Amino acid sequence: MKASFLLAGIASVSVASAHTIFAQLTADGKTWPVSHAIRTPSYDGPQTDVRSNNLACNGPPNPTTPSDKIITVTAGTNVSAVWRHTLQSGPNDVMDPGHWGPVMAYLKKVTDAKTDKGVGDGWFKIQEGGYTNGKWATNVVIDNKGNQVITIPSCIANGQYLLRAEMIALHGARSSGGAQLYMECAQIEIKGGSGTALPKTYSIPGIYKSNDPGLLIDIYNQKAGFKYMIPGPPLFNC
Ligand SMILES: *[C@@H]1O[C@H](CO)[C@@H](O)[C@H](O)[C@H]1NC(C)=O
Ligand SMILES: [Cu+2]
């Protein structure tokens, strides 16, 4: 097992520039066009400083383009954050499969989803995947044609939200700051929720520390079946 980890690690180095973007959203059975209601960058690079304000909704060195659109989503349904290597890539070009790591999604309730920068308190985690049965969550998304399936909680208040989808690549995470964090924010309006739950919220930046065990880790030197600690706050459940 260890030997195969090492080989895969070497293989990933040659294609480490193959990053990724949360490019489009599928909601209520409709797949919206690339960049519709999502602040997408033209360059697919990661954020690596977990203290940066650009950890909320991406930004320099990957400048993002604003969107004046909002996508309506029914509470309690599944949406897919659709990941692509570039804004022009298809479902078979999601990300370098050697980019092993966790996958997460967060929501933040906002007054105006088109303009809110997303920086600061208000975020809660609604989906996460780590390392299960020998497979990293990033590979689950790649094998699912780039679809990160996210259940929108049924119990939260209706209104405008930012939906922040995130994939983290750990191939360089053996040194501090080596984890590659990929995220974009979609602008959504949740309808049909029961509106009673008040999730505990967290600040971005603030949810991660550079030495979190899930961000500072030599993934090629773990025992088979090791327990990976997904970074960030606990998952919110209705
Ligand atoms: C929503 O996604 C979850 C997790 O993948 C799955 O278990 C569930 O069956 C899905 N629900 C629907 C209605 O598709
Ligand atoms: Cu990359």
Unique ligands: 2-acetamido-2-deoxy-beta-D-glucopyranose, copper (II) ion
Q: Give the domain tally.
A: 1
Question: Which structural class best describes the helix and strand composition?
Answer: mainly beta
Q: Which fold name fills CATH's third level, the topology?
A: Coagulation Factor XIII, Chain A, domain 1
Mind telling me the C-alpha Rg? 17 Å
The percentage helix is under 10%
Reported for the largest beta sheet, the result is:
6 strands, mixed
Q: What form results from the Cα inertia axes?
A: globular
- Mean model confidence by pLDDT: 93
The ordered string of helix (H) and strand (E) elements is: HEEHEEEEEEHEEEE
Total helical segments: 3
Which strand-content bin applies to the residues? 25-35%
Give the termini distance in whole angstroms.
38 Å
Tell me the name of the CATH class.
Mainly Beta
CATH architecture: Distorted Sandwich
Low-confidence parts = 1-16
Cofactor: Cu(2+)
Family: Belongs to the polysaccharide monooxygenase AA9 family.
Enzyme class: oxidoreductase
EC number: 1.14.99.56
